[in-house]
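Hi U.,

Before I forget, here's the chain from the pilot set. I'm dumping it here mostly so it's searchable later in email.
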Amino acid sequence: MDRLPLPLEGITVVAVEQAVAAPFATRQLADLGARVIKVERVDGGDFARGYDTAAQGLASHFVWCNRGKESVALDLKDPRGLDVVRRLIGGADVFVQNLAQGAAARLGLDAATLCAAHPRLVAVDVSGYGSSGPYADKRAYDMLVQCEAGLVSVTGTPGQPVKAGIPAADIAAAMYAFSGVLAALVRRGTTGRGGPVEVSMLDALTEWMGHPLHHTMHGGSAPARTGLGHAVIAPYDAYGTADGGRVLLSVQNDREWRRLTEQVLVEPELGTDPGFATNAARVANRERTDAAVAKALGVLGTDEAMARLEGAGIACARLRDVAEVVAHPQLAARERWREVGSPAGPLRALLPPITLPGGGEARMGDVPALGQHTEAVLRAAGMTDGEIAALLRDGVAA
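Structure:
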């Protein structure tokens, strides 16, 4: 049987993007087969290129979010550079931008303007707080939006709120921009029209705050910060083991608690003790519950603790650091790692989570150097060698 093509083969995306939110969205489009033309500044490009040098001299954020794209360096403040972008958009299916609020509109690159001129185009505006309202013009970086959306208030320990260790607001916006493009392309397939797509980081992350929001709105109070614990379930936490590891376990019902007491704690009487027999009782006696679990696991090695918990049918996990995740046996067994090319040589990268059995594997292209594809893209857009040479000479392209 012939393999199915990647679902976005034949789709061209033009992106005037930077940092994480828009680049992560368009990288996923590239993985699914789209051609993504990334327009960058001539003076350094996407500023995420300079965040760090951890990936063999390249920035880790940039490597993560930009594989498989063609980099074109243009000065959009010069009318000639802006004209090139408009020419590229004229041949595109999708346009994505996350410039500072108002900047795209000043350039005529906002979704409403572009979709009016190109009815089949799907045009995406990614912003921090949306296009209207008192926060529309505020600078919106990931940590700031995490604070505004309340994520920081429910993350951490009782005494210390903390931000998420990943750019959760950027990722949330990227995922909705990605799915918004797919939805708009499906609509275009039935109506012939693309249309604008708007995504804000605040809207996206606030949606992800669903449980705390509904707990607060309908229950009258926000869930407590409990570190690795759970506000309304016990035991549900990480516990130290004899070899210095930590194991997280979760007991979801009273039957599981009885199995835990019999097969792991080896204190079966706690299974029926009124102070522990129900989840409500265990939460009320959380310190004693946690102490009993910690005592039992603290004399076991991590491997043995995991084996006993799994044997008892208790949900459990190792608390892994990032290096341990890179070596995770499940990722290795399912062959989730690949290599992608880059200006610094081959780099390991994780296959995207969307798997399409019966179709081609995700297209994990190279990480581009700044302006690597400028001349080829401009030539394909119909510009002559002389026109391209003039743009390069004048610093309008690089």
